[in-house]
Amino acid sequence: MIKVCGLIDEKNYLDLRNYPVDYFGFIFYDKSPRYILNSPNHSFIKKIKNKVAVFVNEKIDTVLNIIETYNFSCVQLHGNESDDYSMKIKKKGIKVIRSYLIKTNKDFKNINMNTESFDYYLFDYKSDNFGGSGKTFDWEILNNKVLDKPFFLSGGISLDNINNINMIKDNEKLYGLDLNSKFEKSPGLKDIEKISKLFNLNI
Q1: In the chain, how many domains are there?
Q2: Phi-psi region of 24 (alpha: psi -120 to 50; beta: other; left: phi over 0)
Q3: What pLDDT, in 10s, does the model give residues 110-165?
């Protein structure tokens, strides 16, 4: 699966829709340069079916309100949200992607492998800004982990390193790739030429 995250522009979305993108991610974190509510014409997201709302330590009532207002069926929690917090979302019939920030093998000690509070893992590079750094961690670490749920791989995925996916390609829990900063012309504006090249690669 391919998830393109951090969209802010309707025309850019319409151009991306010409490619087999499985999920479109919209960031509801006001410290992000890709904060969707800063876009004056963000109402277009209501009509999109295969979309993900991304939050970082947001108030649960705000999250539930945005889910309802913009018709989201999937949420990505990219902060330090608790299992109870996540379960309140799941009980609304919403799929939950739980992000974990990884730099070294030690960071896996903070991952709860025995919870029903989310549906997918997402592993991103550990940065101070909760992602969007354009950096990668050592993906091969994932080959040594026993995961009970599918996962998205995130963090600095680009045309230059995407063939390195082969080092974890046989991991049966690898569900999708999360693309962001390395496929942009500027924050939130995706580079259609790079996306086109991606879908023409033989990975």
Answers
A1: 1
A2: beta
A3: 787 778 999 999 999 887 665 556 688 889 888 878 888 999 999 999 999 999 88
Q: Please state the pTM of the whole predicted model.
A: 0.93
Question: Containing domain of residue 76, as a range?
Answer: 2-199
Nearest to 54 by CA among 38, 40, 66: 66
CA–CA gap between residue 1 and residue 3 (Å, rounded): 7
Write the CA distances from 107 to 42, 76, 117, 121, 138, integer angstroms: 35, 19, 20, 14, 12
Distances (CA, A) of 113 to 21, 82, 120, 182: 29, 14, 11, 30
**CATH number, domain containing residue 64:** 3.20.20.70
- Contact call for residues 202 and 176 (beta carbons, < 8 A): no
- Lookup: tokens for 38: 């800063």
**Secondary structure class of 98 (helix, strand, coil):** strand
Copy the structure tokens of residue 188: 């939130």
